[in-house]
Amino acid sequence: MSRKTRDFFSVEWVKLELIRTAYATRGGLFAKMDPRMVISWYLILAVVPWLTHDLVTIIALFGITAASAALARVGPLVLGLFLIGFITDFAYAFGAAWVFGGDHETALALVEITLKLATVSLASIAAFVSLDPEELSTGLLAWKAPELLAFGVSYGYRMMPILFEEFGTVFTGLRLRSPQGKKGFLGLRALWRWGTWAVQAFYPIFLNTAKSVRTTVESLETRGFTAAQGRDLRIARLSIGALDVAVVAVTLVAVVGAFELGALFTIA
Measuring CA to CA, which residue among 21, 65, 1, 265 is closest to residue 164? Predict the structure, then answer.
C-alpha cells in the first residue's frame, strides 16, 4: 500500500497529471464545445459572483461551478490543490475574525469573498482544463485578443512538457550526486534536502530549455500563429453547434435561478 501511495504522489505522476491538464486529454463536456463559447461561458461565471452580496446566491453559483467542474472531468491533482486552498481560506477567514476581535458578521463577510474567489477559480478550472493550447489560442484570436497573447499561451503550453522533462532529469542527477545522509526527526532533514535540490534544479532547467526555444518558435511562426492569414484560417475552422448554445443557455437559466433563490430567502 505504501508503494502505491509513493507512486501516486511521485514526481512522474505529478508531471503526467499536469500534462493531461494542459492538453485536455480527459475529455468532458466542455472539450466538445467551440472554444469561443467555452470562453464566453467562463466570463459569465467569472463576472456574475461579483454582482451580488447575497450569501445564498453565491452558494448556489458555487454549486453551479462545482457541477461544471465534475462535468469537465477535472483531474485529481488540480482538484486536490483547489480543495487545499479552499479549506485553508475558510480556516483563515474564521481565524482572522477571531484574532482581530470580529463578530459573526466579519466572518460571514470573509466567507463571502472566499466563496466568490472559489466560484471563479472552479469556473476557470472547468473551462481551461477542457481546452488544449491550440483551441485556447484560437478562441482568444476569435475574440480579438492580441496575437502576442494567443501566441504566448500556445507557446507556454508547448514548453511545459520540456520543462517537466528537464526538471526530472536535473533533479535525479542532483539526488545521485549528493550524499543522502540521515532523515532526521520526522524526516525534516530529508525534506530540507529535497527542497534544496528542487531549488537548485531550476537554474540549469532554463539553460537546457533555451536550446529548444528557437525551434519551437520557428515551428509556431511557420504555422501562422502571428500572421493575419493564419489567423483567418484558424478561425474559419470554428463552428458553434447545438451543444454550445444549450450549455450557455442552461448556465444562464441556472444563474438566474441562483439569483431568484437568493431573493426568495431574503423575502422569507
Answer: 21
Hunting for cell 470580529 — which residue is that? 102
Distance between CA atoms of residues 48 and 259, nearest Å: 10
Cα–Cα distance measured from residue 115 to residue 220, given in angstroms and rounded to the nearest whole number: 39
CB 72 within 8 A of CB 130: yes
Ramachandran region, residue 2 (left: φ > 0; alpha: ψ -120 to 50; beta: rest): alpha
Rg (CA), the chain: 22
In Å, the largest CA–CA distance within the chain is 69
61-99 confidence digits (pLDDT tens): 999 999 999 998 888 888 888 888 888 888 887 787 777
Cα–Cα distance between 179 and 189 in angstroms, integer?
A: 12
27: left (phi over 0), alpha (psi -120 to 50) or beta: left
Residue 48 three-state SS: helix
- Chain-centre distance for alpha carbon 176: 33
Residues 115 and 66: beta-carbon distance below 8 Å? no
Q: How far, in Å, CA of 130 to CA of 72, rounded?
A: 6
The pLDDT of 188-208, averaged and rounded, is: 77
